[in-house]
Amino acid sequence: MVSQADRSEATRAVLIAAGRVLFAERGYAEVSVGELVNRAGVTSGALYHQFGSKERLFRAVYGELVQSVAEGILAERSTDSERDLVADCEAYLDACVDPAFHRITLVDGPAVLGWDTIRDGAQVLVQASLAAAQKKGQIPEQPLEPLARMLVAALKEAGVMIATADDPKQARADAGESVRYLIGGLLRPKRRCA
After folding, report:
1. Which of 25, 94, 148, 186 could pair covalently with 127 via S-S, beta carbons 3.0-4.6 A apart?
2. CA–CA separation, 88 and 75 (whole Å)
3. Of the candidates 88, 71, 173, the residue with the CA atom closest to the CA atom of residue 129
4. What 3-state class would DSSP assign to 185?
5. Could you list the pLDDT tens digit for every one of the 194 residues in the chain?
6. Contacts of 96 (CB under 8 A, 6+ apart)
């Protein structure tokens, strides 16, 4: 027998999936609650019961996208002892090539959720990457919060550049080169074994 909690989770999942597709295709402002519930195959009452508003559904979609990228970075970091800060930044830039990620996180995210919310969430992720790099001795001891905030701004701008370019793949390659140069200045040289 399916429990109420299972039904509730299934409803949330179909609404998030519908939101991801529609918000990515047309943007937050152009998508109605009616379209969301029709796409998900549920009632508007279900959307309001699960999320309370279209904005909160958007917040959940946004959170899922960002969490997916963060989990990928953490998984790679846990299996690769040589992984450095550049690789973490490159993973974010790879995500920016995806039109859904770009539209939801870089275009509509700041407009719907506010820049402070977006920046603060991204800063936590970047600061975790910096802390891991510092723990591995890849970067020197230093205050991580201001550095994380500056890197967030640079990465967000690189993401916008990639997503709005006529040739996103070339823009991604160019941004990667710039990130390697920028981040490379922070990294300590790797020690060579004799």
Report:
1. 148
2. 11
3. 88
4. coil
5. 778 888 999 999 999 999 999 999 999 999 999 999 999 999 999 999 999 999 999 999 999 998 898 889 888 888 888 888 888 889 889 988 888 998 998 889 999 999 888 888 888 888 888 988 888 888 889 999 999 999 999 998 998 898 889 998 899 999 999 988 888 888 776 654 44
6. 102, 106, 158, 159, 162, 163, 172, 175
DSSP 14-73: HHHHHHHHHHHHH-GGG--HHHHHHHHTS-HHHHHHHTSSHHHHHHHHHHHHHHHHHHHH
